[in-house]
UniProtKB/TrEMBL annotation:
<dbReference type="GO" id="GO:0006364">
    <property type="term" value="P:rRNA processing"/>
</dbReference>
<protein>
    <recommendedName>
        <fullName>Nop52-domain-containing protein</fullName>
    </recommendedName>
</protein>
<feature type="region of interest" description="Disordered">
    <location>
        <begin position="1"/>
        <end position="23"/>
    </location>
</feature>
<comment type="similarity">
    <text>Belongs to the RRP1 family.</text>
</comment>
<feature type="region of interest" description="Disordered">
    <location>
        <begin position="358"/>
        <end position="381"/>
    </location>
</feature>
<feature type="compositionally biased region" description="Basic residues">
    <location>
        <begin position="8"/>
        <end position="18"/>
    </location>
</feature>
<keyword id="KW-0698">rRNA processing</keyword>
<feature type="compositionally biased region" description="Acidic residues">
    <location>
        <begin position="361"/>
        <end position="381"/>
    </location>
</feature>
<dbReference type="Pfam" id="PF05997">
    <property type="entry name" value="Nop52"/>
</dbReference>
<dbReference type="GO" id="GO:0030688">
    <property type="term" value="C:preribosome, small subunit precursor"/>
</dbReference>
<feature type="region of interest" description="Disordered">
    <location>
        <begin position="288"/>
        <end position="307"/>
    </location>
</feature>
<dbReference type="InterPro" id="IPR010301">
    <property type="entry name" value="RRP1"/>
</dbReference>
<dbReference type="GO" id="GO:0005634">
    <property type="term" value="C:nucleus"/>
</dbReference>
<keyword id="KW-0539">Nucleus</keyword>
């Protein structure tokens, strides 16, 4: 007689699923870079909601790692990060990798323009909420962390952008610079906020205006120089609080005195400083009689150089337009006068001195000649 032994079958235990917390959460990177536009739009909407509703201080959602795997739990922000309302660096890098490829996947021109505008507008919507009472600048500093993450992603991914996508990323940069200036204006050009922004832009590793990092593309700095004054002027036309224009140009001043690229100094001087000086220093200035200048010839065909920078000039109306020009020339002289040990290259220093002379300023060589003349006069007496 055969005995049939019953085989007991047990159902496999279901795999542990990660429960997403109620409230705003960060989407996965693969959702932001999905081929389906609806999925990308939903993921981007979640990013906006997360950043604008205090989600930074509630970060517990699982995040996709660099290999596409999902971590068991989101990395908890440190006590300092929570207090500042700062997204931890690891999550910031993952978030921006997803956002970068979210923009990469947008192909139609209207979709690209809309996404570039929406993405840059997030800067002004970031709100860590719970940190307001402890730090009145927490909102601006959290936005600057987001800006820093953007530039780190741009520097990291720039080499992979093909020529068919380059124009749309240039458009994104223009929108981003404009939003950054609006953020600084919202803080009423607070010194801490402006200095932190300048530090981000000139960061030696991940800043777009770094001069010592060979990974930083020269074309990126050139494009920023082409749009910097124009976008700053757009913002200042709508603002009543005077802006520290020489300070806002300081990252470019540092770059042009230190860059090893021979073509960068004249490109930066003509794009950044010439338009403002042409409008702020009047033709009747007696200093310009002796230096009527090859530089000024570049603006002779312009219908009205003042119109191009009307917002910048308005911002300095409380002092004087000519004072703005003198301040810019002084800032150039101070930076060019720094020592070689501070990174200033002698060939760049001479280019700055020549530029300052052309615009009626006194460079170091002129000052030395004047001192020699004074000594000769004293000897004659």
């Amino acid at each position: 007689m055969t005995t049939v032994t019953a085989i007991r079958r047990t159902r496999p235990k279901p795999k542990a699923q990660h429960k997403l917390p109620a409230g705003p959460v960060l989407p996965l990177g693969k959702q932001l870079a999905h081929t389906d536009k609806k999925v990308r739009d939903a993921a981007f909407a979640n990013v906006t909601e997360f950043l604008s509703n205090g989600g930074i201080t509630k970060l517990t959602a699982p995040i996709e790692d660099a290999h596409g795997m999902i971590a068991a739990e989101g990395e908890e922000p440190s006590e300092r990060d929570v207090r500042r309302g700062q997204l931890p660096p690891v999550e910031m890098r993952r978030l921006w990798k997803g956002l970068f490829y979210c923009f990469w996947m947008s192909d139609k021109p209207l979709v690209q323009q809309r996404l570039a505008t929406d993405l840059s507008s997030v800067v002004l919507e970031i709100d860590p909420k719970s940190t307001h009472d402890e730090d009145p600048l927490a909102r601006d500093m959290a936005a600057l962390d987001f800006i820093q993450g953007f530039w780190e992603a741009i520097i990291r991914e720039w080499i992979g952008i093909d020529r068919f996508r380059m124009d749309k990323y240039y458009m994104l940069l223009r929108r981003w610079i404009n939003a950054s200036f609006r953020l600084l204006a919202r803080s009423e050009w607070n010194d801490q906020v402006v200095n932190r922004y300048n530090t981000i832009m000139a960061d030696p590793v991940n800043g777009p205006l770094a001069w010592s990092n060979p990974r930083t593309p020269v074309s990126l700095a050139w494009h920023l120089a082409d749009i910097w004054v124009e976008e700053l002027d757009k913002v200042l036309r709508q603002e009543s609080t005077p802006a520290p224009v020489p300070t806002l140009l300081h990252p470019f001043t540092q770059l042009l005195t230190r860059t090893p690229n021979a073509q960068s100094p004249p490109r930066l001087l003509s794009s950044i400083y010439t338009p403002i000086l042409a409008a702020s220093i009047p033709d009747s200035n007696p200093l310009l009689a002796q230096h009527s200048a090859k530089r000024r010839k570049t603006t002779a065909t312009d219908a009205d150089p003042r119109e191009k920078v009307a917002g910048i000039l308005k911002s300095h109306a409380s002092t004087s337009e000519e004072r703005l020009g003198r301040d810019l020339l002084g800032a150039l002289m101070r930076e060019a006068g720094r020592s070689d040990e501070e990174g200033v290259r002698d060939v760049n220093r001479r280019k700055v001195y020549a530029f300052v002379r052309d615009w009626g300023g006194a460079d170091e060589e002129d000052s030395e000649e004047e001192e020699d003349e004074d000594e000769d006069d004293d000897d004659d007496e």
